[in-house]
Structures are given as C-alpha cells and as structure tokens.
Design goal:
single chain; 458 residues; alpha/beta; Rossmann fold; Type Iii Antifreeze Protein Isoform Hplc 12; 3 domains; six-stranded parallel beta sheet; four-stranded mixed beta sheet; 18 helices; 14 strands
Length: 458
C-alpha cells in the first residue's frame, strides 16, 4: 500500500486525479472535507440539484470560498479550483475528468449517471448502493466492456467487507461469513418516518435541526439498507444469503467466531459462505456492551490441524473447537475514506469491490396490510421494507425490487410481511419507460440464466 507516495507523485507531476462528484449530501460532504487535503486529488466539479446546499456543505466542511468560485470546468481545470453545477451531465462531460463519484442515493439517477460516465470513458465510484443493488452487475459489465472501473466506495461497509473477504482468500483460508453490524429488533421492520426518531432516541425537532432525513434514517433502521448492502457484497464476493434472508443474530464481538459459523457447529448460520448482519441489541432491547454496530466482520476456518494450532499459538479469537476464527473492524469512516477508491481506480485501474454476478436481490415486503389504490413510497417509507433473498428466488416469485417500489399503485390486498410481487401492482407506462426499469430488465435477461453456473466461492 504505497498510494500516498503515488498520489504525491501525481501532485509533483502536476497531474492530479481529476474527480467529479454528483450529490453533495452527507457522504459527499465527508469526502469533500478530506479531498482538498489529499495530495494528488483535484475535485474539478460538484453537481447537485441544490446549489445552495452544496455551498453550505463546502463551507461547513472547511472549504475556503476562493476554492469553489470557478464558473466553468475549463477555468477549474486551469486554476485547480472547483466549479459547481446543477447539471450532472455537464460535469460528466467536462474535459479532463477521470473519475465520477455517484453519491445521489437515488437508484434511477445513479444508473443514469453511471451509464453516462462509462460511455464517456470515466471510472465510476458508486456510493449509491441502492443503484448497485438494483442493477450493479450490468453496470459493472458495461464498465469492463468500456475498459473503465466500476467500484464500490471504500469507507462504506460493502467495500470494507469485500476487502476483508479478499484478505482471507488471499491468505488461502475459507470465508465462513462476512457482513456488518447494525441496531436491530424485529419490530423495526414496521418502522416508518413517523416512528423512526423514537427508536433512535431523538425528538423530531432535534433531528430536523440537524438536517437528518427521516426516510433515509428509517431505511437504516427497518432493515432495508442492511439488505441492500449485503446484496452488493453477495454480488461482489460470491457469498450468498440464507434462504430466510438476513436473520440479524445478536452478537458480542468476542463471540463472532462462535456465533457466525454454521448451526451444525454451534453457531447461527444456515451455511458456510453466507452474508449476514449482526445486531448490537439483544431481542429484549438491551444493548450488547461489546457490539459491532458501526463495523464489519469476517469469519473463517482453519484448513488443517497445523493452521488450527497456529490460531491458538498467536492468540486468535476462536470458537470452543479452535477451528473457526474471525476478525472485525469496529468502525467505518464513510466519505472520509473514499480517497482509497479513487486512488485504486485511477492509479491501479482496479475497484475496491465490484459485482461480478447477480446472486442476491432486495425485494419489497409489506410493513402493514396494504390496500388496493395505495401508492408505494419506496425505501424507508410507510409501506414496504427491503428483504434480502437470492436473485433466483426473487425472480421465480416475480418479486418487486425495492429500488423500483416508488410511486407504484397497489391493485390487490397484500398482507403484512408478504413479499410484494409484480402481480400485486399496476405497471404504468411511465414505469415501463423508465431507465431503472429497462436496465433492470436487461440485467435479469443477461445474468439470471448464468447465475446457477457461477461457483459460490466460499
């Protein structure tokens, strides 16, 4: 890992990595806070529909006004400053830009921007995990064909999990499970933007004053974001979901090697090679003292008695048999770490995690009884939460992907807890004409017949 030296060299050669970022929300702002301090990186431009929000976030993240007063891409390239626009395509087309960071969080826009960037020969760092879960395997294939990089975003948990999985495999060990931690109770699946702050222990006024988006935070709480992130991990690593989806076992970090192993060996897993999310809360609602709410983990097994003895000799945490062990990282720094993805893509021409098959999907699941005529309001809303399942099963059920469950009318009664299928909703001409729907259909046609032949590398 000599990226700092390589970035310094780019700076000294006066050819910094030229980056454009689309979406200047929390993740984008955290990256921007570090980007101006990282040698060898030049943020040429920022695109966002809310220009005032961009300026406010730049100011709060420490950018001096003179750094972003450029009015054109050409001037920004020449002067080393940054231009701001509400036109994402203008940024993607700007001469000299090498990498586009897509951080809007909107699946349809993420797909559009990724395709535009790939067609222009730009590398894509996909912060927008919603877009990746909906159509990432096809976007990555398009990028490979164009000889550019399509990458998950380092600092976000999926890329950090991919790194851990790769480390285990590069050591010649077998991955048993990998995933992340979160705050979870079964009742959270029914949470809505109206109830989310009570679960977080905040008042609505306090949350609003901090600029916290109730729908977005509710997606983290109701299990949808966990499912989306684990779908991305599955599609990038070959690890697969349990048949029942995520089970969120409560787990102390010191018990990871004992719990995140197969049930037949005393653990909580359905199978070896599983993606899973562990809860920082016990089912009675009490908080586990040594929890992994903000972190990521991987468990692995010893291939021989000799390696098993090495686990013991060097103090690895193991299960009672000594056969399984695990590692974890207690935190992720989100946009503050994104520079690693940018360096990997621009200097090494490699991603920090990328989908290579369509193995896992996230399906819309009713939070309550849904009646004909109701309109679905998407991820984190009042109607549905996202359930993780295999892509083959979701396709067989004709399940509605969570990334398309926005603005669609229900046409028949759906019971609480049931998976919403295409037969349950009205497929409007607007939906059929949308880019997200068309690309999703293309991905299913491209990948699903091949999924069964892709080996499950565990």
């Amino acid at each position: 890992m000599i990226f700092n030296q390589l970035l310094m060299a780019r700076k000294e050669q006066n050819r910094p990595i030229r980056v454009g970022i689309i979406g200047a929300g929390k993740f984008g702002s955290m990256f921007l806070a570090q980007a101006r301090l990282t040698p060898g990186i030049h943020v040429v431009g920022i695109a966002d529909t809310n220009i005032e929000r961009v300026k406010n976030n730049l100011d709060s993240s420490g950018w001096p006004l003179e750094q972003y007063t450029s009015i054109s891409a050409a001037r920004a390239l020449k002067s080393g400053t940054t231009f701001i626009t509400d036109d994402a395509e203008k940024l993607i087309d700007a001469g000299g830009v090498e990498i586009i960071v897509e951080a809007t969080g909107v699946p349809e826009m993420g797909i559009l921007h990724a395709l535009q960037a790939i067609n222009r020969g730009r590398h894509v760092i996909m912060v927008n995990v919603e877009a990746d879960a909906l159509a990432g395997p096809l976007l990555a294939k398009r990028a490979r064909e164009a000889r550019v990089v399509y990458s998950l975003a380092y600092g976000d948990q999926p890329a950090l999990i991919c790194e851990q999985v790769d480390w285990v495999r590069a050591c010649g060990l077998t991955v048993v499970a990998a995933g992340k931690g979160t705050k979870y109770l079964p009742e959270y699946h029914s949470s809505t933007p109206d109830t989310v702050w009570n679960y977080y222990g905040l008042t609505a006024e306090r949350a609003n004053s901090s600029g916290m988006n109730a729908k977005m935070f509710n997606s983290f709480l109701d299990g949808t974001k966990s499912a989306i992130e684990m779908a991305s991990v599955s599609n990038a690593t070959g690890l697969t979901p349990a048949p029942s989806g995520l089970t969120f076992p409560a787990c102390d970090i010191n018990e990871i090697a004992s719990i995140m192993i197969p049930e037949k060996d005393g653990g909580a897993l359905h199978h070896k090679g599983q993606v899973e999310v562990i809860s920082s809360q016990k089912r009675d609602g009490s908080t586990i003292q040594n929890n992994l709410r903000w972190g990521v983990f991987v468990t692995f097994e010893a291939p021989t008695d000799y390696v098993e003895r090495c686990f013991a000799d060097y103090g690895l945490l193991t299960d009672p048999s000594g056969h399984y062990s695990g590692l974890w990282r207690p935190y992720h720094l989100i946009g503050l770490e994104l520079g690693l993805s940018i360096a990997w893509a621009a200097i090494n021409q490699q991603p920090t995690g990328t989908p290579n098959a369509f193995r896992a999907d996230v399906t819309a699941t009713a939070k309550r009884d849904l009646k004909p005529g109701e309109i679905l309001d998407g991820e984190g809303g009042h109607c549905v939460w996202g359930r993780l399942m295999s892509a083959d099963e979701a396709h067989t059920l004709r399940a509605l992907p969570i990334g398309l469950a926005q603005g669609i009318k229900i046409k028949r009664m759906i019971k609480k807890g049931a998976i919403v299928t295409w037969a349950d909703v009205e497929k409007s001409s607007e939906l059929s004409a949308s880019l997200g729907y068309r690309i999703r259909c293309e991905m299913e046609a491209e990948f699903l017949n091949r999924t069964k032949s892709v080996p499950n590398r565990s």
